[in-house]
Specification:
There is one protein chain. The protein has 761 residues and is of the alpha+beta class. The chain contains 32 helices and 9 strands. Strands 1, 2, 3, 4, 5, 6 and 7 form a 7-stranded mixed β-sheet that branches. A hairpin with a 2-residue loop joins β2 (198-206) and β3 (209-224). The model has no long low-confidence stretch (mean pLDDT 95). Bound molecules: flavin-adenine dinucleotide (FAD). Flavin-adenine dinucleotide (FAD) binds at residues 180-184, 189-190, 222-224, 273, 280, 435, 438-439, 442, 444-445, 448-449, 552.
Amino acid sequence: MSLRTFRRDTITRPIFKWASRATPPISGTERDAIEAGTVWWDGELFTGNPDWNKLLAMPPAKLSAEEQAFMDGPVRELCAMVNDWNVNWEDRDLPREVWDFLREKKFFGMIIPKKYGGLGFSNTAHSEVVRTVSSCSVVAGVTVMVPNSLGPGELLMHFGTDEQRDYWLPRLADGREIPCFALTSPDAGSDAAAMTDTGIVEYGEWEGEKILGIRLNFHKRYITLGPIATVVGLAFKMYDPENHLGRGAELGITVALLPTSTPGVTHGERHIPQFTHFQNGPLYGKDVFLPLDLILGGEKQIGEGWKMLMTALAAGRGISLPSQSAAAAAICARATGAYARVRTQFDVPIGMFEGIRKPLADLAANIYLIDAARRLTIAALDERHRPSVISAIIKFHATEHMRESVEKAMDIHGGKSIIDGPRNYLGSQYRSAPIGITVEGANILTRNLMIFGQGAVRSHPYMLKEMLALADEDEKKGLDAFDKAIWRHLGHAFATAGRAFVRGWSGGRIGPAPDGAAMPGYWKQLSRHAAAFALLADFALLTLGGALKRKEMISARLGDVLAELYLLGAVLKRFETEGRREEDRPIVAYVMRQGQGRMAAAFAGVLDNLPARWAAYLVRLLAFPVGVPAPMPSDELTNAVAETLMKDSPQRDRLTPDIYLGEGHKEHPLKDLEQAFKLVTAAASIEKKMREEHVGDPQVARDKGIISAAEFEQLAEAKAAADRVVAVDAFPMEEVSPIAAQHRQKKAARNKRSTRSEAAE
Ligand SMILES: Cc1cc2nc3c(=O)[nH]c(=O)nc-3n(C[C@H](O)[C@H](O)[C@H](O)COP(=O)(O)OP(=O)(O)OC[C@H]3O[C@@H](n4cnc5c(N)ncnc54)[C@H](O)[C@@H]3O)c2cc1C
C-alpha cells in the first residue's frame, strides 16, 4: 500500500497534472456518443491480442421458421409487385397497392414486438428482408428500412413510456401511422447537435385546455418518408427560460412524437434524391404547440435526445445500409459475371480478357467480405450487443465496397449500363450509391473522426478510465483512479510491445491462430497486425493526445487498420462457419491479400506521417523490421476468383443468395440475363467443338457435320437470348423530350393548316 501511495504521489501526480492540462474537456454530446451502445469485439481488437476462439464461438446469424416463411412469402410477393423502372421514371412513387401490401403484411413493424401487433423479428430477419427487398428496388428497400430503423418505433421500445408504447407501437406496426425521423436541418448536417430547431416550455392551448407544453419552431430537410409521414420523431433543442420545470433554462436535445396533423406543421414537398423516388422532403414547424407528454420517454427523457439517438444508431446503422449494400454488391457481382460471359467482343466473351478479370475478381471479393461482416454484425446484435464502433465500421466499409462494386460493374458493362431504360438493371444501383455513403453518418466524417476517435476512447482497455479519472471533479478520487489505470496501461503497453516484436520479427509466423483453423497463416498475420495496431495506437494517443482529433488523416488510417482487423476476421470466420468449402479458398485468399494490402497502406501512412518521428521509428523497429508487408493477389489467383462469377455453379448461387432475379414479372432484365447466361454456358461445349475445327460460323459447322442440327438450334437459342441482353432501350423522341413533342404538335398543326388552305384553294 505504501509503495502504491508513494508511486501515486510522486510519479503519477505530475503525469496527472500534465495530462489534465493536455486533455481537452469532453463535451456533453461527445460523452453521450462515447457512452452510447456497448463494447464488443472492438474491445478485443484494441487489446492487440484478440482471442480468435471467442470470435469463432459466436453463433451464426439464423432465421426462425416463421422468418424464413416471411422471406419466401410476403417478401417475394412484394418484389413481384414492384417494377423499379415505373417507380422511378413514371409513377415517382410506389404504387398504392404496394403501400397497402407493406402495411397489411406489417413490413413497417418488423422490429416491433408481437405483443404490440408487430412481427417481433430478429435483427437477422430484419437485415435479410431489407437485403432482398433492396435487391428488387432501392425505393422499396429504403421505404421498408426507415420505420424499422430510427423511425420512432426503435426509440419508443427503448425509451418510450408505457402509455406511449401502448398507443403508438400498435399503430406503427400495422401502418396506421407512417413514421419518419427528423434530425437534420440546413445548419446542422454532420454536426447535427448544432441544430437551431427549438422547443420553448410555455403555457398554450391543447384540445381546448390551457396546459404547460412546448412551443416548437423548426426547419428540417432530407427527411425520408417526411412528405407522407403522420408522426415525426422530432429532435430539437429544448429551453425553459422561465424555469417552469425547475431544471434551468437550457435543457438540451430532446425528441418529441409530433403528429403531422398538429397546427403549424407543414410537410408534403419532395426532394428528389438522385432520381431515386422514395419519399423524402423537408418539414417545417411554426409555433407548433405540443403537450409535455408527447416528449419521447416523458419528462425524464428531456435533454436525453442525443444519447437516445446514438444508442439507437449503434444498432440501426449496423443493419440498414450494410444490408442494402450487400444487396447492391450481390446484384453487381452476379449480373456482371453473367454479362461478362454472355457479351462477346473480338469473338470471345469479354470475361476472358485479363483486364476484365481483375474487376470481376474484386466484385466477387466484395460480396464475400460485405456479407461476412454483415452476418457477423447482425449475429452480435441478435446476441444483444449494441457495438457502436463496429456498427460505424460496417456502415462505412459496406457502403464503400458497395460503391466500388457498382462502379466496377458499370465499367464492365460499358454502354449497356449507361443507357437507362427498363432493360438497365444497374442504373438505379449506381444513382443511389451516394445516398448510402451520405446517410447515417456521412462516410468521410465516419472514417476520419468516428471509427478510431470513438474506438480509442470507448474500446481501448484503459483510455476511457483515464479520461474519466482526469475529468473527475474530486481531484483526489480522480488521481487515485488515474494511478490505477495508467500503471495497468503501462504494463499492457509493454506486453503489446513484446507481442508486436515477436510477431513482427518472425514475419507473422509466431502468433496465435484459433485451434485447428483451416487457414492458420492468415489468422497469424491478423494476430501480428493486431499487436502492431495496438502498439501504434498507444503511441499515437500518447504523442498526439487531444490533437489526434484534428489529425484526421492519422485517425482515419488507424481506423482503417481497426476496420480491416474486424472485416478480415469476419471473412476467416465465415470460411470456418460455412464448413471450409474448398471452392471458396481462392476467394478467401484473395480477400485476405487485398485486405492486408489495404492495412499495409494504412500502417505506412501513419508511420510516415506521425509527427513524433521517434515513436514512428520505434514502432517500425519493433513491429515491421523489414517494412510493412503488402501482399497482393497474384494474377493466377485473380483469374481463379473471376471464374467463380462466370460459371453457372452452386457456388455462384451460394455467394449471391436471396437476391431478386425477376421471378413473377413477365419481363425483367435480370431474368433475361440469367436465362441467357444459362443457355450460353450450356452451349459452351458446342462452341468448343467448332473452335477445335477452326470454324466460326454455326451454319457452316452444321453443314460440315461438326455440330448436329439440335446443337445448331441450341446455339441459335443462346445467341438470341444473348442479343436480348445486349440490347438497350430507345424511346420515341417525343416521349423523352416535351420540346420535341411540342415541336411535333406544332408541325402537325402547321401541316393541317396548309392542307386545309390548299384544299380551299
Ligand atoms: C437521401 C437522404 C435521406 C436522408 N434521410 C434522413 C432522415 O430520414 N432523417 C434525418 O434526420 N436526416 C436524413 N438525412 C440527412 C443525412 O443524415 C445528412 O445528409 C448527413 O448527416 C450529412 O449532412 P449534410 O448532407 O448536411 O453534409 P455536411 O454535414 O454538410 O457534410 C459535408 C461533407 O463534410 C464532411 N464532414 C463534415 N464534418 C466533418 C469532419 N469533422 N471531418 C471530416 N469530414 C467532415 C461530411 O462527411 C461530408 O462529406 C438524409 C440525407 C439524404 C441525402
